[in-house]
Amino acid sequence: MNAxxxxxxxxxxxxxxxxxxxxMVRDALKAAHSGLNIELKIITTTGDARTxxxxxxxxxxxxxxxxxxxxxxxxxxxxDLAVHSLKDLPVQTPEGLKLAAILPRAPIDDLLVSRHQxxxxxxxxxxTVGSSSPRRALLLKARRPDLNLIPIRGNVPTRxxxxxxxxxxxxxxxxxxxxxxxxxxxxRGSLQIEGLTLWLESLEWMLPAPGQGAIAVECRxxxxxxxxxxxxxxxxxxxxxxxERLVLKHLGGGCHLALGALARETQEGIxxxxxxxxxxxxxxxxxxxxAPSPAEVARLVADQLLxx
Length: 308
What we know:
With 308 residues, this protein is α/β, with parallel strands linked by helices. Helix content is 30%, strand content 26%.
């Protein structure tokens, strides 16, 4: 494909956050390669179309709930690149495709978004928190066993709207990266949603999902688009995210696993911390290691978790 002869077609989900992230990629590509013409094409994924599907259960349809249709469009050559939240991508990339770029990571924090001041400590006894993430729900339950955790579906604005509406939700947990990319000012410690003040607290003790805060761009392996995308790849983020995702792969799971992992580059190598709750009635297991490569450090951490 000659990018100068026809536009690059960028595939994206239609949510506000997906579109914001896709525009970031589009603008970065155009800044790096003058003369590029890039068109966005909205593709509806299973997760978008079937809002009743549980995100927290290991169903056969759960793998790639928000990514499969984008990858199929790539393989059919209907689009030239696809933009994903990296944490949504299964750890196994389909044959013929490649993650050609991982953009610099945004803040990785999870935020408690609450109708009550005072953060987690300020939630009244028996409060209801909406979360479809087993990692978030079980780690929160370990700190506050009195809380009632129930699933919540919808994109970020929908979840905020549900929370602002009140019952049954007292609070929810959202990624700081997504809120920031949607233009919310997190420095004020609160959000104004539908005339209501929602209070924010960073849950710094809650390790993020593997790849949380990172944007991934996927294309066909060997396609000319791969070379264009290489200019966007942020190698430190890519290495750290690879280590986190390899732990997930070693544990044999997807988004239904209650796994938190955070890797950072240090002078000694890649430092990786992880927490895993294998069952809803189990205590959290922690592991950490430092090694030169993503593969080595992930194997060390996974072995610790599996042998605990």
